[in-house]
Amino acid sequence: MFSSDQMGNHRQMGDPKRKNGRVSFYGQKSNILALVAGLHSQKSLKDFGFAFSHKQYKLTREKAVIGQFDLNPGEKIIPQSKTRISEDVVDFFNNILFEKSLPSLKTIVQAQKNGQETIKEVRTLQDTKKSIYWELKNRFPEIKLSLSKFYSLCSRNFQRASKRTDVCNVFKAGDQYKVGLNSMVRSGNIDIFRMATLQKLMVEYNDHMELNRIQRDAFKTQQENLDGRSCLIVADFKENFRIGGGPVEASSSFYRKKQISDLCFCIIYKEDGQIVRKYFNYLSENLSHDSFFAINCLKSLLALEDLARFTTVHLWSDSGPHFKNSDYIHAVFFQIPRIFPQKKLSLNFFFENHGKSDVDGHFGVLSRWFSHAEAHQNINTIAELKECFERKAHADSLTRGNENAGKYNFKVYPRDVPRSERYQVKIKDGIKLFLSYIFIEGKLLASPICSEDLASYNPVAYKEVKISDKMSNKYASDHIQRGSSRDALMGPSSIEIQTKRVGMLKGVRGSGKGKRFLSNDGHCER
User: Fold this and answer.
1) By mean pLDDT, which of 68-77, 164-173, 219-228, 435-444 is the weakest?
2) How far apart are alpha carbons 5 and 16 in whole angstroms?
3) Annotated region Disordered: where (predicted)?
4) What is the reported pTM?
């Protein structure tokens, strides 16, 4: 048994933070405590003044049982040398990075040691810097270099490749023209006629980007200015689901899958000052992504109890032909107000080829849910697809809490909705020019950009037209490959070919291959 003085000495030795000339046993605390852990309880040791966690005490008990009391601090770890890396080595690393990268259209400005600035081409790495580092270590093991030091030596013009979406052809071409113009100015080799052409193209490019920015800002402004009686509805079609798959699929079943369309409406509104989003998906076997389909779904949506309290509704969609057409405009400003006279609607379109919105992120969620569900069950009907999504939505609400309840909603659009007449609004100057429409006091007003200022809107001349609907609904084939009800592995033609092959192999003498087949020997007769 230890005396109080002995315990005090061990207490001092066991504290790795004690200084002032006393011996430090950093990293040996558990070994010191092991000397007394077998004799005293955890509470007793803490009463003596030891400071340790329950995990440390458990470790000391284990060491006390096996008799591990080694207080040898071991070999001293010597840190790597802080020797400065030579410029030749840095150039060598950059040459390696150059080999592992591809040129891009971007440039950056880098400051030199002499204070001057140089413009360098940005090169996109074909692999991660970490992978390049380990490849470098394998090729040149004599180089002593840590990963962090390698990161610091990498020039800033070597960057990881990134993917950009929602980039239109104008934006892509504009980047190339910008690089060409900057290159011409830097080199001093100026072609006056080429420069004039590039400058004109850059003016058009800048106007395009500015119009897109203004329209996006208008969408954000409407979202920020929402109150308890107003909402935004963003609509878009998803790429069709392909049902008929499951955990195990034959190679031919991919081409026999049935397509299901999905039109989604994202309702954006404020609740207690916070932005809330709800998604309503209309699943359908009808693959006609036209205005007739979109109008019927919109009418069904506005009739739901979830939207009853909203008197101001701002409709947004991309500029695709299924939304931006005379049928859809007529439905929004002439048909729907007769059904819901208390609602005031505005119709807005995102800039052409820049239609990414809140709905696209939701589509990514649905794709993941669908892939996960197919790995666990067969999905052969639209009802099974709807049930699958509803189970996933319920599980999501349980995981994220009650505030996510009701966030995802799924409905089935009827298969055969009769078509009769089409009602259109024929605008004198056409509909391509305008991205925003409102209807006030019997006048249809339009603006090339969405704005809170009514002065930006001008009345447009229009007339209502009724024509017969000559379009027809498009449906995918009802045939989904399932397991056959009769005992047959292959079709007659395939069986005939296989039988001939077996017969040919049986005719090969001495190969022994014919013995492996049972057919035509009375064992597998059909």
Assistant:
1) 68-77
2) 19
3) 1-21
4) 0.65
